Amino acid sequence: MPKLMEETGYNRTELYALWARFKALCSISKVPKGIDKDTFHRGLPQLSVEDDFFIDRVFAILDADGSGILEWQEFVEALSALEKGDINKRVGFLFRVYDLNGDGTIHRSEAMQFFLASLLINANDEVEEVARHFVNKIFAAVGCAHKDSMNIEDALAYMKDHPAADIYSLFGRTMVSTRQQSNANSPGKLDPMAAIIG
Fold it and tell me: Which residue range or ranges hold the EF-hand domain (predicted)?
C-alpha cells in the first residue's frame, strides 16, 4: 500500500474509497473482473461528457495490457493521472492521448482531430475554420504560434508561467478533479479558457 500511495498521490483512505468505487463499477461492467470502456466513460464524472474519439484514445492508453478492461492497477493509475497527478503527470498523460503518431509532440493536425471530434457534428468548411482558430489559440498560448507542433516542454513552460491554468481545459477538455473544481470556484480565480478564447 505505501508504494501505491507514493506512485499515485492518494492516501490510504482515498485508496480504500477508490477500491470501493472500482468494485462498484466492476459490478455494472460487462466483464466483472474489470471496467469495460462504456462503464469507464459513464462511470467517471470527469469523462461523462467527453466524445467517443477522446474516450477511445484514453482507454487504449490506460489499458496497458490490451485486455479490453481496466484492472485495479490501471484504474488507480488512470484516476491518479486525471485527478491527483502533479502537473508533469497531467501534461504527460495529455500528450500521450493527443500524440496520435507517437512522435512525442502534438501536431496541429492531431489537435484538430480531437477538437473536431469533440464538436459532435459533421465537419464542413466553417466548422474546420472554427477548429483551426481554436488550435491556433492553443498553440499561441503555449508559445508555439509559428510552429506546426508543440512538445511537452512547451506545455510545461506554459503551465509554470500560468499556475492557475488547467492543462485539460486549455485543450478544451472537461476533465477536472474535485479539488480543481473547488479551486476554480474560489473567489479571485480566473477561468483559464477565458484568456485563450477571449
Answer: 50-85, 86-121
Buried b (16+ CB within 10 A) or exposed e, 86-117: eeebbbbbbbbbbbeeeeebbbbebbbbbbbb
In this prediction, residue 186 carries a pLDDT of: 38
Cα torsion through 135, 141, 142, 147, rounded to 10: 50
Whole-number pLDDT of residue 169: 79
Give the tens place of pLDDT for each residue, 115-130: 998 887 677 888 899 9
Task: Specify the range with the lowest mean pLDDT, choosing from 23-32, 37-46, 165-174.
Answer: 165-174
| Cα–Cα distance for residue pair 96/2, rounded to 1 Å | 27
Contact indicator for 192, 87 with CB cutoff of 8 Å:
no
User: Which CATH number applies to 87-198?
Assistant: 1.10.238.10
Domain 1-85 annotated CATH 3.20.20.70 = no
All 3 cell numbers of residue 165?
Answer: 491554468
Contact 110, 98 (CB under 8 A): yes
Residue intervals of the chain classified under CATH 1.10.238.10 are 1-85, 87-198
